Amino acid sequence: MTIPAGEIVVLVGPSGCGKTTTLRMINRLIEPSSGTITIGGQDTSAVNPDRLRRGIGYSIQQAGLFPHLTVAKNIATVPGLLGWDRKRVAGRIDEMLELVGLEPDSFRNRYPRQLSGGQQQRVGVARALAADPPVLLMDEPFGAVDPITRGLLQDELLRLQAELRKTIVFVTHDFNEAVKLGDRIAVLGKGSRILQYDTPSAILAAPADATVAGFAGADAALKQLTLTRVSDVTLVECATALETEPVDSLRAAITGHGTDWGLVLDDERRPLRWVTLPQLAHASSLHDAGTPVGKGVSLRSTLQEALSALLAESTANAVVTGRRGVYAGLITIDTLVSHLSGMRSTAAGSAAGDATAEGSA
Fold this sequence. Notes:
By secondary structure, the chain is of the alpha/beta class. 42% of the residues lie in helices and 17% in strands. Strands 4-5-6-1-7-8 form a 6-stranded mixed β-sheet, sandwiched between helices. A 4-stranded mixed β-sheet has the order 9-10-11-12.
């Protein structure tokens, strides 16, 4: 199993399959009985265990903070062991607190008992990153917090990863969390056997066996929609007109599109209202014709968010806006179905290619 540098690899699997044991073998809290683990090409068994661990960040479910030490001293643990001077350590403490979204002046001198669960986890991540390790091990770090806080912490980790590009090995029981966070997912089975190791999209589109399919869940297709941004698909155009234009202008545009509805925009081309041909028949102007557009989506939104938006619209279309809310196009049900079909075809083709390569070998 090879973990590419700068990626998040998530280990999932049933209890007792060896997820945490795998992490502990990486930093030699547990010695492997056989095989070799290398980091950056170096065999970890040839490195002094203490020196090895000081170069690997470690974040666990209950944060693992020392209760008798302040937040600052917790974060300073590894830099202190590495012999950093006080000025450098103090600067790093504040830098790490700011990085994880905690105000240094407010949190530096607090004790773990004075923090919420989410704040403790943030400090735990700050401590794990304090010595700037290239590798970060995370053992269900968000498993003990409420769902809302968990989502926020996941978003925070993705933000940090976009900035820092660490190599992260992340353990979770939650496949949804694995899909959201992982560049790759390793599904482990009994005896720590790797059942499938691939990208989230490939696993969701073509699970290797029934066990992997069970982890992916019956809603695997919906999970796939979380992996794609609106900006990554081709948007659909519809009939539009500015609200200052005559009614006949929109009527002609609707007829030209072969539909019975269109979209009224303001002078800045921001979407205002859906209008149908029957509504136009009784309208003298576009200023008050139609029904308001619901909550749309941006180009940065996921296709799952687009699905939620289009289900709330009477036209079953999600309005997409770009910068400053300017109309960019529509997402339709057909858009989503076509995208999912394409993902399945790609995954099937890749699987067939791998099988052919193995047969040739």
